[in-house]
TrEMBL record:
Entry keyword annotation includes Oxidoreductase: yes
InterPro entries for the chain: DOPA-like_sf, DOPA_dioxygen
Keywords from the UniProt entry: Dioxygenase, Oxidoreductase
Entry superkingdom: Bacteria
One term of GO molecular function: dioxygenase activity
Keyword Iron: no
Protein name: DOPA 4,5-dioxygenase
Species annotation: Geopseudomonas guangdongensis
Length: 123
């Protein structure tokens, strides 16, 4: 028998918008628009791979209750950008490996740097 978890275990979400030199301005516009429209914290536009991400990326962080508004907006407005969306449940490895949603083509992540449990994950 499986022990089912409550969705309340998800405290928030990260959306990582992937881009390259040719799509930098498109990613900047998308992330800025998301931060203006929603209760989303926009991170830096990293012009190098950071953390487990294989490409340049920008992180959008938001609380769990914002998912119902942010996800459909990203679906309709991402253009040809790839977006990795993952929950913040306190289990970074599982959140990136098993619980991730991809808008666009899934990319291989470097999961070796992710702990099974988070010490103090912020939204």
């Amino acid at each position: 028998m499986h022990d089912y978890r409550d969705g309340a275990a998800i405290r928030g979400w990260h959306a990582h918008v992937y881009f390259d030199a040719a799509t930098l301005e498109q990613a900047r516009a998308l992330c800025s628009a998301a931060a203006e429209r929603f209760a989303v914290t926009m991170g830096r536009l990293h012009q190098r791979p950071v953390g487990p991400h294989p490409q340049w990326s920008c992180q959008l962080a938001f609380r769990a209750e914002a998912l119902a508004a942010v996800l459909p907006w990203l679906l309709l407005n991402r253009g040809d950008l790839t977006v990795l969306l993952h929950p913040l449940s306190g289990e970074p490895l599982a959140d990136h490996r098993d619980r991730a949603l991809w808008l666009g083509s899934a990319q291989p992540l470097d999961l070796s740097m992710l702990p099974e449990r988070a010490a103090g994950e912020e939204i």
